Amino acid sequence: MNNENKKSKNSGKIILIILGAALGLFLLVFGSYAEKSDSDAESEKAQSIEYSSLDADEYARETEGRIARLCEKVSGVGSVNVSVTLDGGYNAVYAQNSQSGSSGYKNEFVLTGNGSSEKALLIGYSAPRISGVGIVCSGGGDSETKKEIIALVSAAFGVSSNKIYVTEGKN
User: Fold this and answer.
1) Per-residue b/e over 70-96, b at no fewer than 16 CB within 10 Å?
2) Do 107 and 166 belong together in one domain?
3) Are residues 135 and 109 both part of a single domain?
4) Are residues 117 and 134 in the same domain?
């Protein structure tokens, strides 16, 4: 019976060693996967917080200030007030693979992750498009000054000249 106790203790130890090794292997394989997923989630969360602070109204105000400072440097222009109208807000830009074949072009989003966690790879965000600019300034009634301001704003901000209006302000 003493010999059977030794065998049963040894087989119990072997089972514990096997279970311990299996648990260790399990943690190595799935622990690194979970850690990677957590860091990806944290990175994504930080990025979404960063881009959620992108405000189209704030962008419009900043652009108005830039246009006003630029226009004030034009000869014959005094005080300047600017209003910018935007077409939409920030747009997400995703990585794409483009392939051409006999049937034409094929664009596919680049995906990251596996299975249900698969999602498109976000590259960044594009700024809202400026759809119109109104400028009220002293000196804006002069036709040459008006043409100069329109050409300047059009070139600097990529807005077509027919979407920019300049007029003389009240004294």
Assistant:
1) bbeeeeebeebebebebeeebeeeeee
2) no
3) no
4) no
Residues 6+ apart with CB under 8 A from 74: 139, 145, 148, 149, 152
Structural domain count, the chain: 3
What is the pLDDT tens value at each position of the chain, 171 positions in all?
Answer: 555 555 566 677 777 778 777 766 666 666 655 544 555 555 555 554 454 456 888 999 999 999 999 999 999 999 999 999 999 888 888 888 888 877 778 888 888 888 888 888 888 888 899 999 999 999 999 999 999 999 999 999 999 999 999 999 886
| Chain position carrying tokens 């329109």 | 150
Torsion of CA 136, 139, 144, 147, to 10 degrees: -20
Joined together, the tokens standing for residue 24 give 């260790």
Question: Could you give the count of Cα atoms lying within 13 Å of 147 in the half-sphere of its Cβ?
Answer: 2
Residue range of the domain that includes 71: 55-89+128-171
Contact (Cβ atoms closer than 8 angstroms) between residue 92 and residue 121: no
